[in-house]
């Protein structure tokens, strides 16, 4: 049973911070060293000082900075628990879209309970970093991205905002964020009831969800934790899987360090399982879009691109026999199993030594054309229904299988999980 609750959010004081665009950031794990320094220079109260401080003792620095900013009323806390409706206006592939979501807290249950399902594997180092931050600050700074299934749109109708948004900001990619705080208890209760029997799917933020679990378990070992303690919950941005603004972008693969490749031999090996057809570089988008499922493109240098259409999946069924048919149907699994592992000979344990990732197609081609990489494997995006099916089997996709766009920015609203904090 999904337990969704409103919370009293911390946010920037609009009388102190007139332009919220100057202080919001991308999620901590998307902030490069260069972007971190850009945020530091952008505004003295930029949220990066809390989530990713450039300081010798970053966790202590974050906690101290929060106390300072809250005492100065740069950060203020809402007087009532709320669900925060968030609309993100953006452009992708020349189309304007709006992704509608809401921010609330969800009880962080173990995956075995079946209420929240993951779809990607996680690494230990990022979880240790975020656990140190959470333990030191007792503040849940950033939301994770969760999908729920509501084809009739009941929740969205309940949370239709009125009036001007209480918060508005534009992020680094031109995405406009609009936020309304909903405090009407009848509406909040209706949302909780509508979602109580839903199975939630983590779209993005697996490390942060598992960190919330680890922190709660750590606190339980240290003593009794009330059932309604805020630390039992994780602040989350929820999106209906049927929302027309839900966009998943592909993440292309760049190959390097593979020695002296003889492309005639490589193409001959690929032809064991794929139809291979030369295409022009400028035609990749159109060909990938219209060619159907299980189609890839191989780009080796300027003017050298081939469309690859899967024609024989018998080897795939042998190599991935311990997984479901839905898992084997994923383009990312086909690409890694047949192309990266079988054709190019890269073992899963050596992926980080030979494979890099790039979302933008033009940038992908340019990196190969400049000889920085030996080749690129171009993909179509994973569909949301595929993510849902694989997660329902209890299976996790390879990393970089999905790239939900846009990201949920940090710095709009966050949750206190300190001692004595409870959610009703």
Structure commentary:
The protein is α+β, with helices and mostly antiparallel strands and 424 residues long. It has two domains: 4-247 and 405-416, no CATH class; 251-380, Conserved hypothetical protein from pyrococcus furiosus pfu- 392566-001, domain 2. It is built from 15 helices and 21 strands. The protein has helices at 33-42, 48-51, 58-71, 124-137, 154-158, 185-195, 206-222, 263-270, 284-290, 314-319, 325-328, 331-343, 351-354, 361-369, 384-392, and strands at 4-5, 10-12, 75-77, 83-92, 95-107, 116-117, 139-140, 144-148, 167-170, 176-182, 200-204, 233-240, 247-249, 252-255, 274-279, 295-301, 304-310, 355-358, 375-378, 403-405, 415-416. The strands form five sheets. Strands 1, 4, 5, 6, 8, 9, 10, 11 and 12 form a nine-stranded mixed β-sheet that branches.
Salient structural properties:
6-stranded antiparallel sheet; 21 strands; 9-stranded mixed sheet; alpha+beta; globular; 25% strand
Nutshell version of this structure?
The protein is an alpha+beta fold and 424 residues long. 32% of the residues lie in helices and 25% in strands. It folds into two domains: 4-247 and 405-416, no CATH class; 251-380, Conserved hypothetical protein from pyrococcus furiosus pfu- 392566-001, domain 2 (2-Layer Sandwich), CATH 3.30.1760.
């Amino acid at each position: 049973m999904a337990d969704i609750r409103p919370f009293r959010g911390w946010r920037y004081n609009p009388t102190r911070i007139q332009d919220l665009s100057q202080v919001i950031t991308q999620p901590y794990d998307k902030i490069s060293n260069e972007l971190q320094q850009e945020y530091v220079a952008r505004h003295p109260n930029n949220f990066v000082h809390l989530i990713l401080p450039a300081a010798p003792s970053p966790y202590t620095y974050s906690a101290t900075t929060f106390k300072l900013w809250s005492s100065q009323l740069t950060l203020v806390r809402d007087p009532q628990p709320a669900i925060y409706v968030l609309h993100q206006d953006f452009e992708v592939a020349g189309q304007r879209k709006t992704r509608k979501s809401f921010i609330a807290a969800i009880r962080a249950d173990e995956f075995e309970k079946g209420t929240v399902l993951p779809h990607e594997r996680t690494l230990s180092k990022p979880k240790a970093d975020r656990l140190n931050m959470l333990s030191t600050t007792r503040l849940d700074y950033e939301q994770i991205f969760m999908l729920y299934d509501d084809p009739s749109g009941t929740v969205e109708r309940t949370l239709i905002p009125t009036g001007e948004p209480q918060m508005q900001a534009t992020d680094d990619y031109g995405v406009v964020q609009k936020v309304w705080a909903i405090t009407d208890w009848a509406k909040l209760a209706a949302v909780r009831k509508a979602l109580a029997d839903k199975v939630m799917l983590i779209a993005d933020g697996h490390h942060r969800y598992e960190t919330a679990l680890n922190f709660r378990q750590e606190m339980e070992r240290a003593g009794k934790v009330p059932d309604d303690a805020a630390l039992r919950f994780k602040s989350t941005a929820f999106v209906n899987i049927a929302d027309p603004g839900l966009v998943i972008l592909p993440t292309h693969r760049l190959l390097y360090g593979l020695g002296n490749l003889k492309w005639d031999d490589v193409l001959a090996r690929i032809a064991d399982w794929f139809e291979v057809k030369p295409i022009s570089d400028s035609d990749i988008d159109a060909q990938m879009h219209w060619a159907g499922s299980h189609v890839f493109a191989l780009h080796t240098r300027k003017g050298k691109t081939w469309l690859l259409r899967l024609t024989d999946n018998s080897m795939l069924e042998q190599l991935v026999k311990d997984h479901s048919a839905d898992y084997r149907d994923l383009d990312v699994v086909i690409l890694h199993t047949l192309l990266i592992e079988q054709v190019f000979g890269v073992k899963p344990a050596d992926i980080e030594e030979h494979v890099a990732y790039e979302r933008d197609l033009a940038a992908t081609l340019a990196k190969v054309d400049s000889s920085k990489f030996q080749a690129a494997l171009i993909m179509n995006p994973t569909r949301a229904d595929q993510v849902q099916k694989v997660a329902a089997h209890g299976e996790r996709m390879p990393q970089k299988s999905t790239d939900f766009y846009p990201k949920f920015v940090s710095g709009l609203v966050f949750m206190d999980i300190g001692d004595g904090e409870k959610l009703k």
